[in-house]
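User: Let's play a game. I give you a shape written as tokens, and you guess the letters that built it. Ready? Here's round one.
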């Protein structure tokens, strides 16, 4: 019998998530060893992001422990299903983790840390990482379609190619390739690919990986990118913090990568600091903020885990979906 929400006891918690403070989450590390050196941690950190020893110990070691348990359980379920179906062979289904969130929130740092930590658990020695940037349409095609100002929005991706890639990974195929993207030239690199060869875990990082397509009226099955995920993470922060981090990163890049002759953004290295800052604000307000509000942020409730950052780029709260 259906129960009206209004008649439920006020003590009934309807949230699908269990919330943890940083201290509560850190206590779940148990005896998980720290397998990264300070030098390795430094090398995994993106520009203007902050990743210290405390963040790895308090946040990522408990998370790697949880994911190792989930992966082991999934591997056991797969083997049990194979026995039930009388299916032989050594095929395995890679465990796929999606990492979503805004531009400048620190997705790449999180993905790289998890890649290194999870590869050091005994049941998942082979961990691969791919970003959805490689599945962006080439700039020439985006210009033809009038989508350069919508780069990073769902319509700017070759979604069928991404779905085909994930389907092949889940099927246990060997040597599956994905296009390579260069942030320096701000485009997909023609003829360049990365190869994924039957990993134990594949981490897929991207802005819109949790977004579902519009459902067809005829109920025809249409796969979502997230249909292929076994676990998903959303990195969260307040809009004003994201704006500040984006502008700070832009100003740092202006003094570094933007100065390279082949950089797509070379012109921004030549203008004044104030002009560059105003340009960064304009790019955020015109492109990144609408994408965040329309497409990225609404997918936050679909994640299995939400990592919420504070003003210092440190994770202050963890929300884990209840089983």
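Assistant: Ready! My guess for every position:
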């Amino acid at each position: 019998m259906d129960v009206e929400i209004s008649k439920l006891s006020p003590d009934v918690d309807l949230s699908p998530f269990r919330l943890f403070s940083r201290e509560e989450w850190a206590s779940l590390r148990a005896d998980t060893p720290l397998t990264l050196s300070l030098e390795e941690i430094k090398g995994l950190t993106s520009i203007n992001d902050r990743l210290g020893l405390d963040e790895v110990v308090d946040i990522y070691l408990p998370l790697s422990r949880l994911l190792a348990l989930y992966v082991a359980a999934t591997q056991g379920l797969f083997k049990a299903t194979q026995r039930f179906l009388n299916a032989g062979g050594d095929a395995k289904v890679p465990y796929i983790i999606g990492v979503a969130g805004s531009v400048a929130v620190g997705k790449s740092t999180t993905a790289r840390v998890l890649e290194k930590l999870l590869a050091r658990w005994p049941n998942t020695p082979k961990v691969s990482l791919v970003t959805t940037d490689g599945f962006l349409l080439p700039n020439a095609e985006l210009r033809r379609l009038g989508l350069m100002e919508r780069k990073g929005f769902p319509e700017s991706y070759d979604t069928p190619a991404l779905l085909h890639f994930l389907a092949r990974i889940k099927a246990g195929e060997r040597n599956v390739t994905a296009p390579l993207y260069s942030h320096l030239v701000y485009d997909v690199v023609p003829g360049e690919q990365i190869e994924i060869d039957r990993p134990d875990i594949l981490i897929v990082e991207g802005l819109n990986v949790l977004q579902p397509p519009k459902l067809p009226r005829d109920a025809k099955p249409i796969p979502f990118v997230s249909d292929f995920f076994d676990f998903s993470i959303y990195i969260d922060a307040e809009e004003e913090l994201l704006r500040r981090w984006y502008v700070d990163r832009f100003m740092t890049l202006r003094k570094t990568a933007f100065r390279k002759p082949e950089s797509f953004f070379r012109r921004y290295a030549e203008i004044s600091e104030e002009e560059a800052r105003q340009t960064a604000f304009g790019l955020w307000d015109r492109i990144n903020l609408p994408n965040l509000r329309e497409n990225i942020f609404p997918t936050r409730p679909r994640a299995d885990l939400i990592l919420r950052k504070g003003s210092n780029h440190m994770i202050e709260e963890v929300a884990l979906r209840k089983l």
